[in-house]
């Protein structure tokens, strides 16, 4: 079974995303903060990680993504944010500043969440 980790400080978003993905047969693990997200990414070996950019601090998600890559976490990371451009940084693309394999802007439509998972699984 495909295991998906969702890290976000918005409990309503986590519950909604979990419901949508579990209805499609995926196992979903959630974490509401960076520390728990890192712990679950390292211990639960997810196949895909959805990671909010802005949590307790504006760059928590970016920092965690870098830490996970340094820990050799192989799961693709999809960054989430309610704003795609902040302070001139384009959050809509993945590069060395934003180490990810994709981006979704909130609010995320259920069908977009499912499409992103399916596209990653088909790679």
Can you describe this structure?
The protein has 123 residues and is of the alpha/beta class. The chain has a single domain, classed as Rossmann fold, CATH 3.40.50.2300. Helix content is 37%, strand content 23%. It is built from four helices and seven strands; from the N terminus they run βαβαβαββββα. The chain has helices at residues 11-23, 34-43, 60-70, 110-121; strands at 3-7, 27-31, 48-52, 77-81, 85-86, 89-90, 102-105. The strands form two sheets. The chain has a five-stranded parallel sheet, sandwiched between helices. It has a two-stranded antiparallel ribbon with strand order 5-6. A hairpin with a 2-residue loop joins strand 5 and strand 6. Helix 2 (34-43) runs parallel beside helix 3. It starts with a strand and ends with a helix. The model has no long low-confidence stretch (mean pLDDT 89).
